[in-house]
Specification:
The protein is mostly helical. The protein is built from six helices and two strands; from the N terminus they run ααααββαα. It has one domain: Arc Repressor Mutant, subunit A, CATH 1.10.10. Helix 1 packs across helix 5.
């Protein structure tokens, strides 16, 4: 047994740390997403932006950069750079919001609309496969606990 005197660790096993488990599951999830999205030629950040924008369209939510930042929890600079790249790839367009001249709206090009459709289907399939090891009740518990952690650490779910 290793002498714990002077050790900064409070857990006997690394997997007793909730944060380390979060790190491991995030790494596994990002690896899965990276493979799926790599085939489509977009990054995870770009996907989060495009999927959020598509969600906004269906829900009637404003397609502004500010709303994308809040929804996807991507910092402004990272979001702006990713949208610029999506514009360069002819997937998105930015324009002044018709509702607020201070806001920037984002919309799909025809090429972007086709790509996001494929991407959402592919990611939702990967999502189902990734979480298939959990029975429905445990998956529901996982989602509820995750939302609680988000709300507890940001004030919103």
């Amino acid at each position: 047994m290793v002498d714990k005197e002077g050790s900064p660790f409070k857990h006997k096993k690394a997997d007793d740390s909730a944060g380390f488990l979060l790190w491991k599951i995030t790494a596994l999830w990002q690896q899965r997403l990276g493979g799926v999205l790599g085939e489509l030629g977009i990054t995870q950040t770009q996907y989060a932006i495009m999927a959020s924008l598509r969600w906004f369209e269906e829900q009637g939510e404003p397609p502004t950069q500010t709303h994308l930042v809040a929804h996807a929890r991507i910092d402004k600079m990272t979001l702006s750079k990713a949208i610029r790249r999506l514009e360069e790839d002819s997937l998105l367009l930015r324009e002044t919001s018709p509702d607020d001249s201070r806001a920037v709206s984002v919309r799909f090009t025809a090429k972007g609309r086709k790509l996001v459709q494929k991407a959402v289907v592919a990611i939702e399939s990967a999502d189902d496969a990734f979480f298939s090891c959990l029975p429905p009740r445990l998956l529901g518990d996982y989602k509820a606990l995750t939302l609680r952690l988000i709300a507890g650490n940001t004030g919103t779910a």
